[in-house]
Amino acid sequence: MINNFLKTGKNEGIDVEGNLVPLYLFDGQRAISETLVVMILISAPMFLCVKPCIALCCPGPEAEHHDTKNHQSEVRAAESEHAAEEGLL
After folding, report:
1. Fewer CB near the last or first residue (10 Å), C or N of the chain?
2. Residue 38's closest CA among 12, 65, 4?
3. Residues 30, 23: Cα–Cα separation, whole Å
4. Cα–Cα distance measured from residue 55 to residue 16, given in angstroms and rounded to the nearest whole number
5. What is the pTM of this model?
6. CB contact at 8 A, 14 and 21
7. What does the alpha-carbon distance between residue 4 and residue 31 come to, in Å, rounded to a whole number?
8. How far apart are alpha carbons 14 and 20 in whole angstroms?
9. How many CA atoms lie within 13 A of 48 on its CB side?
10. DSSP secondary structure letters along 55-81
11. d(Cα 84, Cα 80) in Å, to the nearest integer?
């Protein structure tokens, strides 16, 4: 597979007389190999760049929530007010 990538889909061997002969298992294998090499050349940079681009463009979870201690104290205050109102009724 590495040779397939490095030779851009060409798969040739040397016969007994020293001539280059194609070593394909079926017709159309070279076209498939070249297509797969092109797909690798397109998709590999995408795999490597997507996560850093998302990290730069999208805010993290800390940007969505304000301080959790303040939020927890607000929730407790609201719960105690609710409990006090129920006790008065």
Report:
1. C
2. 4
3. 10
4. 56
5. 0.46
6. yes
7. 12
8. 5
9. 6
10. HHHS--HHHHS--HHHHHHHHHHHHHH
11. 6
Cβ neighbors of 21 (< 8 A, separation 6 or more) are 12, 13, 14, 15
Place of tokens 């001539």: 19
> 22: which residues sit within 8 A by CB, 6+ positions away?
11, 12, 13, 30
pLDDT tens-digit profile, the chain (89 residues): 676 667 666 677 777 788 888 777 788 888 888 888 889 889 998 889 888 888 888 876 665 555 555 667 777 777 777 777 776 55
Give the pLDDT score at 88.
55
CA atoms of 52 and 46, how far apart (whole Å): 10
Residues 70, 21: Cα–Cα separation, whole Å: 74
